[in-house]
From TrEMBL:
Chief place of localization: membrane
Entry GO MF terms: dipeptide transmembrane transporter activity
Residues that span the membrane, as ranges: 30-52, 123-144, 156-179, 221-240, 271-294, 325-348
All copies of domain ABC transmembrane type-1, residue ranges: 117-344
Organism encoding this protein: Teichococcus coralli
Keyword Transport part of the UniProt annotation: yes
Alphabetical list of CDD domains matching this protein: TM_PBP2
Entry-linked Pfam families: BPD_transp_1 (PF00528), BPD_transp_1_N (PF19300)
Location of this chain's protein in the cell: Cell membrane
PANTHER family in UniProt: D,D-DIPEPTIDE TRANSPORT SYSTEM PERMEASE PROTEIN DDPB-RELATED, DIPEPTIDE TRANSPORT SYSTEM PERMEASE PROTEIN DPPB-RELATED
Protein name listed in UniProt: ABC transporter permease
Family matches, as PROSITE patterns: ABC_TM1
Membrane topology: Multi-pass membrane protein
Amino acid sequence: MAEAAATPARRSGGGAAAALPSWSGTALRLVVSIAVTLFGLMALTFLIGRLLPLDPVAAILGDNATQEAYEAMRAQLGLDQPLWIQFGRYVGDVLRLDFGTALTTGKPVLEDIARVFPATIELATVGILIGTGLGIPLGVLAAAHRDTPLDYFVRIFGLLGYSTPNFWLGLMGLVLFYANLGWVGGPGRIDTAYQWDIEPVTDLLLLDTAMAGQWEIFRNVLSHIILPASILGFGALAYISRMTRSFMLEQLAQEYVIAARVKGLSWMRTVWVHAFRNVVVQVITVVALAYAFLLEGAVLTETVFAWPGFGRYLTNALLAGDMNAVVACTLLVGIIFVALNLLADLLYRLLDPRTR
């Protein structure tokens, strides 16, 4: 009997021991996958830097440089070396987080990105909160009331969000809500009168002013961000509501929904408690992708609103032929997508036991 009692214990211990290699193997595959993805991303950004019709030497010296000066600068930048040597040097620089100096500012590119990126994070975060807070309920309600006026309204609203250019919405919003009605602040992140009164901690102005209790400045910052964030959120809302509606329609056609109704549950309780719970993981993935698109796709919005963020910095770098900044920004965009996809996958495994 003692031997029989010990058998399950040994089996249990063996199961726990077997689980460790399984988890370690999963972690190893994840690390290898990330490493291969980032290496491919570095190779892609390197090729972009070489294939774009922009000459970094001419951007540095100007069009009136002599041939001798041109060749000397080309050798100094290492552009006279074979491509494989240039790529090896580029990989080494990236691993050291050395992206060179930006031509437009004369400062290290990484320092420039650290300065402008918080503005884009703040804008995209407010935008995704608007898009998620409205997009998910609208998508669920449209699916729950399929082929009704509400459903048609959500679908048309989403179609407008996909098809209307952000720069046009931005210009019309400034004309209406800023110039005519005066409901929102103008271009920029904050009025000039307030910008020196903020003690930067995170460089997220809403957060910094709230932590400092500077509520008058907080309202001023909010008045500036609400319009561009709403325009970005409009596009995210269209995508999130459309995908949520699609996921919900699939779930509402399942047999467990009919069983819940037969048991006497109300329609909205069945929709929100049972059906929506089964699409939460998919919706999280959609929201993560939408957030990534907002972080890298705010170029036109930031340009229209003179928003000193990442998108505007990248636009100025492209116009100036600043290849160091262009390549670094492109690599950062790719890393953002990889990181948010990884986060969505981890949340998928955490929230859905079937994937473990």
